[in-house]
Amino acid sequence: MPIHDGNLRSFFVRLPSLYFGLFLFAAGAVTNLYSGLGMSPWGVFHVGLSGLSGLTLGQVSQLVGFAVLLLGWGLGFPPGFGTVMNMFFVGWFTDRIMEWGIVPKPTDPLSQVALLLLSVVLIGVGSLFYLRVQLGAGPRDGLWVSIVKRLNRQIWLIRGSIEVTVLILGYFLGGPVGVGTVVTALTIGYSVQFAFKLGKFEGKSPQMNLWELYGYLLGKK
Q1: What single string gives the DSSP state of each residue in 117-146?
Q2: What percent of the chain has pLDDT over 70?
Q3: Is residue 51 part of a domain?
Q4: 155-187 core/surface letters (b: 16 or more CB in 10 A; e: else)
Q5: By 3-state DSSP, what share of the chain in percent is helix, strand and coil, each rounded to 5?
Q6: Full-prediction pTM beyond 0.70?
Q7: 66 touches 87 (CB < 8 A)
Q8: Is residue 219 assigned to a domain?
Q9: Is 115 a member of any domain?
Q10: If I label 69, which of 46, 98, 139, 150 is the partner at 20 to 30 A Cα–Cα?
Q11: Does the structure show a pLDDT above 60 at 1?
Q12: Count of domains in the chain?
């Protein structure tokens, strides 16, 4: 079947926002790390695995993202185009940002706090630019969504359980736990919500998986 030209153009128009959002995600991870005050639960896990394996932080993010994507898919959450791009590019951007020295390392406590707060803002704004194109949620979001549907439990319980689990694993692997871990856990949700409000984006808007995107490009819907 021929590709629907209008829908194909619409797809390509969404890509700059998608990749900019992923870049902001990666910048948020690096500023979170460089603050030296402790990382988000997944960040603690990634850094711990990086130290254990000798892989870069970005490579670990990619491998974990791929494993989580497959697990979520197996539990009934088919990935979207954005899910796959998230899995690869957040890690790739992370390594490039660190390699090119885009984010300066702090030299005093005040700049440490500033970087920590900046990381929360970057992740919130990145979520807006990434999710508003509706091409698929991130791999880690897909995991907790699939488990919620399978077990019919409350979102806070499943998501919280997953993050506590990876935090504990990351801690024992030597990942950076500190006051920043608590701050990010308590504020990132509000940062995302505030960014959505400013961007006039409804967080519950549906996200297309790969099969739905295929049908969309063919003009089936």
Answers
A1: HHHHHHHHHHHHHHHTT-S---HHHHHHHH
A2: 98
A3: yes
A4: eeebbeebbeebbeebbebebbbeebbebbbeb
A5: 75, 0, 25
A6: yes
A7: yes
A8: no
A9: yes
A10: 98
A11: no
A12: 1
